[in-house]
Each structure stands twice: as structure tokens, then as C-alpha cells.
């Protein structure tokens, strides 16, 4: 099978999004105590993102492409995290930020990328990831209204 450059580029964009997510959850977890009711939820979500990243990387390799090793545009996520951590923050702030991140950077970006013409197998993977990201938002919202 020859490499489909468009497919690989598109999947790498999604992979980059997962890395951004992992990076932000790592950051959230650093600001939570292990006793926090959020700690386990956020750890579990982070593991999901790591799993998504390895599934995407495997798919890219199956297409003879080279998966990215980290997120490229660190600027975006740093600015975005900066908005939260420059001021006092409690669990509610962190939750709202995580929900906004999942919605904006996770789901919306993934859906946009998914419309860029992927083959069937890649598309199924992407939709599975988007479904899990929606579940993350539901989990986080439950915590927020708890």
C-alpha cells in the first residue's frame, strides 16, 4: 500500500490534538491533590487520550506514514492554560476549563478534521475517538454539577 499523504497529514492533525489534550490534563493534574474527587476522573481521561494517541499513531504507521511525536503548536495550549493558571483556581475553574478544551480543541477540531475525506477505517477510528471525547464532557459536567 502506498502512503496517502492527505490521510496521514489529517490523522497527524488529530494526533496533535490528542497530545494537546494530554498536555493540558497533565497540567490540570499537577494542580489537583490526589485526594480531589476530580483526580481519578482526570487521570482516566488522560489515559483515554494516551490510548487515542497510540491508536492514531498505529493507524498512521499502517498507512506508511510517520506519526508526530508531540504537539507542534505549543503556543496555543500554553496561552490557553495561562488564562487559567495566572489567577486563583479551584476545582470548578479547572473543570470548566477542561470542558471548554474538550469541546473546542477536542470535539470541534476532530469533527472538522474528520470531514476532510478519510478512508473508512480511519473514519471509524476518528468517530470512536469523538464519541469518547463526548463521554469525557459528560463525565466532567456531572462533576461540575455535583
UniProtKB/TrEMBL annotation:
CDD domains: Ferritin_like. Residues 8-104 form the DUF2383 domain. It comes from the Bacteria. Pfam families: DUF2383. This is DUF2383 domain-containing protein. It comes from Shouchella lehensis G1.
Amino acid at each position: 500500500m502506498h502512503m496517502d499523504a492527505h490521510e496521514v497529514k489529517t490523522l497527524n492533525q488529530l494526533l496533535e490534538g490528542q497530545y494537546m489534550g494530554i498536555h493540558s490534563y497533565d497540567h490540570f493534574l499537577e494542580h489537583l491533590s490526589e485526594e480531589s474527587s476530580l483526580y481519578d476522573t482526570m487521570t482516566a481521561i488522560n489515559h483515554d487520550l494516551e490510548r487515542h494517541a497510540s491508536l492514531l499513531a498505529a493507524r498512521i504507521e499502517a498507512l506508511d506514514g510517520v506519526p508526530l511525536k508531540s504537539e507542534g503548536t505549543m503556543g496555543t495550549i500554553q496561552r490557553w492554560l495561562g488564562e487559567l493558571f495566572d489567577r486563583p483556581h479551584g476545582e470548578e475553574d479547572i473543570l470548566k476549563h477542561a470542558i471548554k478544551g474538550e469541546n473546542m480543541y477536542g470535539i470541534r477540531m476532530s469533527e472538522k478534521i474528520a470531514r476532510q475525506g478519510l478512508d473508512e477505517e480511519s473514519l471509524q477510528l476518528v468517530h470512536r475517538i469523538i464519541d469518547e471525547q463526548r463521554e469525557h464532557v459528560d463525565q466532567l459536567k456531572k462533576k461540575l454539577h455535583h
